[in-house]
Amino acid sequence: MTDMPPPDRDDDSLLAAEYVLRLLTPAEKRAFEARFAAEPALLDEIDAWSERLSGMNAEFSEETPRAEVKDALMARLFGEATPAPGFWQRLGLWQGLSFASLLLAGFFAWQNIQTAPTEAPGRGPLYVSEIAAEDQSLRVLAVYDSDAGELQINRTAGQAATGRALELWAIAEGAAPVSLGVLPDTQTAGVPLPEEFHAGVADLTLAISDEPPGGSPTGQPTGAVLAVGRVTEL
Amino acid sequence: MSSAEEIEDLIGKVSLGDRRAFDQLYNLTNAKLFGVCLRVLNNRASAEDVLQETYMKVWRYAERYARGGTSPMTWLITIARNTAIDKLRAHRDSEDIDGMSETLAGAGPTPEQVAVATGEAGRITDCMKELEEPRDKAVRGAYLEGLSYAELAEKLNVPLNTIRTWLRRSLISLRECMER
After folding, report:
1. Does domain B4-112 have CATH number 3.40.50.300?
2. Measured between alpha carbons, how far is A222 from A220 in angstroms, rounded to an integer?
3. For domain B130-180, which architecture applies?
4. Of A45-54, A116-125, A203-212, where does mean pLDDT reach its minimum?
5. In what helix (H) or strand (E) does residue A53 lie, and over which residues does it extend?
6. Is this complex scored with an ipTM above 0.90?
7. B55 touching chain A per CB within 8 A
8. Contact across the interface for B121 and A52, Cβ inside 8 Å
9. Cα(A161)–Cα(B41) distance, integer angstroms
10. Could you give the 3-state DSSP secondary structure of residue B117?
11. How far apart are CA A102 and CA A130, in angstroms?
12. How many Cα atoms sit within 13 Å of A40 on the Cβ side?
């Protein structure tokens, strides 16, 4: 084998390889990237080399970073960009909800489900949340029925203001609230919980906000957050 | 290791702004990507910084991941590798590069690791063996450690003015072998 330069027809493929290997100088890299728009075949060459060389990926061993890295990352990404400002600050106020009241609430809710004519009580863990205003002017009990995949709602105090609606929200840790719909005027209701929340139901926070009739027009809470409750496993 | 479909699915959700999916994607892939950063940077603090930058890019550019192109893990590793190498280059001009030789001459993959690499890509290990030593080390050093041409020339005792032709020959041999 000699060290003569390789033939020209190979040049683009080799540039692609060097691009993947990060061996091009900044000027060469820019010149190569400038051709992408007009010559999309270059991107295929890049993909082909990525795939060829990816066989070496097995040689990268797995290593565990400190847990703080994830916390810092999440704070950098989502820390100051919460969709509804003030929402999380409000949540903080409510997290001191007494566990005893939840236990009691859960007991009644469980009885409630048990006596429902259609189904036997779930045998799995019981998830319950008391979504309550600080002054108890609005209090809604939610019990997760894992068989039906829905929340059994029992509004034990309060109601929507005249000409307004109460909208229920599910909030996964660190995520934006997801609407579960407007609560009906009836005292009890079954509210389907989207499947994405089923596995992590124990870590959900539920909240009720004051919204125009029909619910928030934006997909995020627009009115005051009236009541908040964390889901607890009983 | 989770399946490619699972990771692909999560990247798809992340491209729609799904934070839960992003959380899950991090949990499933951070150990591998941190391994990549650490291998290139050889310093835990820098590797942790780069790991964060990597996932910030993943969050921002997830919609650019195209199904059916490269495998999702390869895509993620490419981002981690490129980010780590850029960091390395930014630092290295002023730094002594002694101490790189041990990592460069690192052991080859175990049979188990080879089994993990699938399909066409897995063949590179066999083809690597067909390269005359130390040409395989050049490709490996560039890919796994992010070495530049100048660094490869120094470590492999190849004149700087021929290292590029030298490595390109290796790449052509590799490609020919893998296409056989």
Report:
1. no
2. 6
3. Orthogonal Bundle (1.10)
4. A116-125
5. helix A41-53
6. no
7. yes
8. yes
9. 59
10. coil
11. 6
12. 0
A4 DSSP assignment: P
Greater pLDDT, A191 or B66: A191
CB B141 within 8 A of CB B149: no
At A209, phi and psi to the nearest 5? -120, 160
Q: Which residue has the tokens 């084998």?
A: A1
- Note the residue count of chain A: 234
What does the pLDDT look like over A125-178, one tens digit per residue? 677 888 888 777 888 888 888 777 888 888 888 888 888 899 999 988 778 888
Give A35's Cβ-side CA count (13 Å radius). 16
Name the residue ranges covered by the structural domains of chain B: 4-112, 130-180
State whether residue A47 sits within 8 Å of chain B by CB: yes
CB contact under 8 A, B81 and A22: yes
A 109-148 near B (Cβ less than 8 A) = none
Q: Which residues of A114-135 are buried (b: 16+ CB within 10 A; e: fewer)?
A: eeeeeeeebeeebbbbbbbbee
H, E, C per residue of A10-52: HHHHHHHHHHHHCCCCHHHHHHHHHCCCCCCHHHHHHHHHHHH
Interval B137-160: pLDDT, tens: 899 999 999 999 999 999 999 998
Do residues A232 and A129 make contact, with C-beta atoms less than 8 angstroms apart?
yes
Q: Please identify among residues 109-128 of chain B the ones whose CB lies closer than 8 Å to any CB of chain A.
A: 109, 113-114, 116-117, 120-125
| CA dist., res. A210 & res. A226, Å (int) | 7
